[in-house]
Every structure is written in C-alpha cells, then in structure tokens.
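Input record (Table S2, row 402):
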Amino acid sequence: MKIYLDNSATTITDKQVVKAMLPYFTKNYGNASSLHYAGSEAQKALSDARKKFAEYIHALPEEIIFTSGGTESDNIALMGVVQYYRANDENKIHIITSNIEHPAILNTCKALEGWGVEVTYLEVDEEGIISLEQLKSSIKPYTKLISIMHANNEIGTIQPIKEIGEIAKEHKILFHTDAVQTLTKVKIDIQDINVDLISFSAHKIHGPKGIGALYIKKHTPLKPITYGGSHEYKKRPGTENIPGIIGFAKALEISKHEDIEKMTKLRDKLIDGLLKIPKSKLNGHKTNRLCNNVNVGFEFIEGEGILMHLSDKGICVSTGSACSSASLEPSHVLKAIKLRHEIIHGAIRFTLSKYTTEKDIDYTIKTVGSIVKKLRKFSALHEGKKYDIIEYEDTHDHANEE
Ligand code: PLP
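Output record (pyridoxal-5'-phosphate complex):
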C-alpha cells in the first residue's frame, strides 16, 4: 500500500497537467520572444495562461509575473521593494514579518539585514497567529513592507490577512503575503483583500516543479533583482518556461471547490482518529487551519522514528518542513508556538491532497496507533518507565595515564 500524505512538500503532477504541457516540449517549443510563427504560438500560449491565472484571483494579466517557484517569488517581492527604495536613496528601511515564515522569507530577511535593512519578527500565539496589536505597535515611520504568510506550511494556521491588509493600507505600507500553501485551498480574491504582492508555486497544487508566480499590484514600487532581457514586464528576465506556465494554469483550471470540502472532512477524520492515541496533541489552530493539514505531536517518542516506521508501511509524512528535515534542529515554527520539548520532538505533519481517500485515512490512523504503541515500549521517557541509570564498573587500569 502506498499512501502519500506529504502534499505540503510537493504534490503529484496531475495527468491532465502533464498532457497540457507535452506539446510545448516537442511541437510548440518556440521562444515567446521570437518574431516568427513558432514564437507567436508560444507568446499566445503565455498570454492565455497569464490571463487565466489573473482571472483566478481577479487581477489584471499585467499584474502577474511567472517565476521559478515560491522561493524566487518571495525573493523578488522583498528584495525588489527594498531595491526600489535603496535606489531612491532612502537610507532607513524597515520590514515587518513573523517568526514562523518559510525559510524563503526568513533567510531573505537575514540577507536584507546584512544590507542594513531593519527587520521586526513578530511573535505568534500558541496556535500560530500573529497579534494585530503587536503589528500596529511595530510600525515605524520608515516601515516600507509587511510580509506575513497566508498559511503556515508546518502547522497550517491561516493568518488574518484581510485585517493585516487594512492595517498596511491605513499606514500606507506595502503588504506581501506568501500564499504558496493556500492557493486552491483558501479563496484568494485580490478585490477582497488589500494586498500588493502575493507569492505562489505550482508544485503544491498538482502543477509541475520549478514554476511559480508573483502578483504585483499595479504601481507597486519594485525593481528587478536579476538583470537581463525585458521579459515579464521587465521584472523577471529570462526566457519564459512555457511548458511550466501552461501546466501551472492547467492545475489552477482543474482545481475545484469540492476538493476543499473533501479534504476538510478527511482532515477532521484523521485528527479525531490520531487524538484518540494517548498523549497526543494537535499543533496549530483547531479550525483556522488549512483544509489538508494535520500536525500532531506524540509524547515520549521521536518524530523521525515514527516517520521511518510509517515509510516502511508505505506511508509518506514529514516531521516539520521538508526543507529543514535534513537538520536535527527542532522546527522554528513549533518552537515559536511554545510547544513543550516532548511534543516538538514527536511532531508529525500529515498533508492530504484531493486524491487522498477514506481508506488511506483509516489505514493511516490504524498504522500510526500501532507504531506509537510499539515505539513507546522502547522509550525511556514513557510514563511509568524510569530512566535506568546504568553504573558501569570501571575495570580499566588508569595507572599509566598521563
Ligand atoms: N513558501 C512556503 C510557505 C512554502 O511552503 C514553500 C515550499 O515548501 C515555499 C515558499 C517555496 O516554494 P518553492 O518550493 O516553489 O520554491
């Protein structure tokens, strides 16, 4: 049995998406900047895809630029705004973000601090939500940008972006949100929210990897961060990835509202089933969370142990975010919501997709239950078991030691 519950890391590329992309590798492979018919075909495909994308969020086509993914979109948004103000000789620039952002934002902010930009990292509450009061009180006369993610990739908590947008507008500050995890899962209508920049990525929504988009509201002050041709409204140079862009637009086109309802039902079933396991805790917000995210901490055992045992049984999950899973450092997000050490170390993220079935969820609940039971038997920390302090007899002859 193979059950993939790591859809916040990446998703299967939908067969319809692959089918839509294929002709753009082998038949209509022209460069959208070329003047001949092959170039015109590519140019038409590019502008149709851009139009489709813009319509999806009620934006204008010229407000959408395609990038190589969520990471690049985040970099262009933050660095592009800073570069604009630096070019205008503004010597004091302040950005407000949160301490649970994806590394694509946090590490960009670190780089900007190296350039002399001031950054405030807002704290979040125990469910992962920022404080609007703290946001307001962090604003300085030279705050140029607020960047708060729409939903967190580890715990699924959704931020109040409408309210954040209103605060930004009131203070005439630009607002960027990383919506990589929310596209197709939470309605994004830019006529409804005051937002100037939004980052998106295709591979989280059954599109291909290596393609992303950035919504840039008309008249937003932003300079390119790489230099080359005049592609993408002079904001992101480089020959456009037409097959990727076609795939991204197709993935959006085939996403359905019913998928959200289906995932929400299965998510709640998984949460209920996992919380029946003794000493387990749901991390993140109970209701204000992504329709596909379940993050549960199991006390007294290591998440990595659970993950490997689940993998042996055919189930893919994650401990924290995939990007940081190579490090043994506890997740910055789980630390930020002030979880106890025992919960952080036993935290597992299960992320569903529209292809997840009830059978997958039933099997997962059963399998996690038996793995947790088995691992706890061996855990020195488990309730009822005391640490066994073994006193070794020192038989070594130390006489000749220096
Ligand atoms: N932002 C968030 C919230 C993410 O979850 C991810 C990927 O996990 C990214 C940005 C980076 O996106 P990409 O993999 O397309 O570069």
